[in-house]
Amino acid sequence: MDCKGDYILEMLQINNLTKKFGRKNIALDNLSLTIQKGEVFGLLGPNGAGKTTLIRLLIGLIKPTSGTAQIRYNGEYYDIHEDIMKIRERASMLPQEAQVYEQLTARENILYYGQIYGNMTDEEVRNRTEELIDLIGLRGRENDLTKEFSGGMKRKVLVARALVMDPDLVFLDEPTTGIDILGARTVRNIIKKLAKDMHKTIILTTHDLSEVGELCDRVGILVKGKLAAVGTPAELEEKFQKAGLEDVFIGLTTGEGVIEEDFLKQKKKRSLFSRILKRR
Questions:
Q1: Each residue of 159-209: pLDDT tens digit?
Q2: Among 171, 5, 18, which Cα is nearest to 90's?
């Protein structure tokens, strides 16, 4: 993350957020987290860990059982429950299952979504669309029907659609899934540019841990609705005495071989104390 001065501020504040479906199904359990402006935050966890529920809560698609989450915009905080229309003006989501309209061109796909949001004039939507066509690298193909596009090119159009209203907070759900290496590289470069140069806040869900290491400033690992760990990839590797983020993830999600550094230190202290007593 390369944010300085006024750009370092709380963009998203989550406090004790809980979501229950029925009496016993706890999808999120008392989750608290702060995500900074301009940060790429990786949200990891096995299927059913609560990742999708958290994103749906933050985008206002469902309501929390308890707890709060607020997004900061122009120095003011807006609650995900009380100020949902304001939040939807500043936050955007690209679901993994999103599809382009294949009977529309790339330009028409982006224009259409810009007009749906309704928070920009027609001229602003047109100008923004042209900016995004250049950003995603589709200049020269913008007037082609998207049914002729490869999976990677379609994914670029979907990323542009998610960015058309110039959001401050962007949720990207498995953005490189199902596309080729070159397409994935382009999407990753776009994510880097959004955070570093445009100071957008990105919340990224992915199962590609190499992608996490390349893109994410910090990582949160969800296990059964709880935030099991949060930190930079390097911090988590050090904390849990692991060689890589994959080992940390597997250890936390399976319960196998996760040993925190503090625990090791305490164990060494106890061992040393025992040896001293024996000498006496």
A1: 999 999 989 899 999 888 878 888 888 889 999 999 988 889 999 998 888
A2: 171
List CB contacts of 145: < 8 A, sequence separation 6 or more: 102, 103, 104, 105
Give, for 181, the enclosing helix (H) or strand (E): helix 181-196
Query: For the chain, which domains are there?
Result: 5-231 (3.40.50.300)
Determine contact, residues 183/136, Cβ cutoff 8 Å: no
Handedness of CA 82, 83, 85, 89 (dihedral sign): negative
3-class SS of residue 19: strand
Instruction: Give exposure, 102-138, as e/b (b: 16+ Cβ within 10 Å).
Output: eebbbbbbbbebbeeeeebeeeebeebbeebbebbeb
How far is the C-alpha of 92 from the C-alpha of 169, rounded, in Å? 6
Q: What is the pTM of this model?
A: 0.82
Q: 10 Å Cβ neighbour count for 45?
A: 24
Neighbours of 33 (CB within 10 A): 17
In the DSSP assignment, the letter for residue 145 is B
The set of residues, in sequence order, having a beta carbon less than 8 Å from that of 107 and lying 6+ positions away, is 129, 133, 142, 143
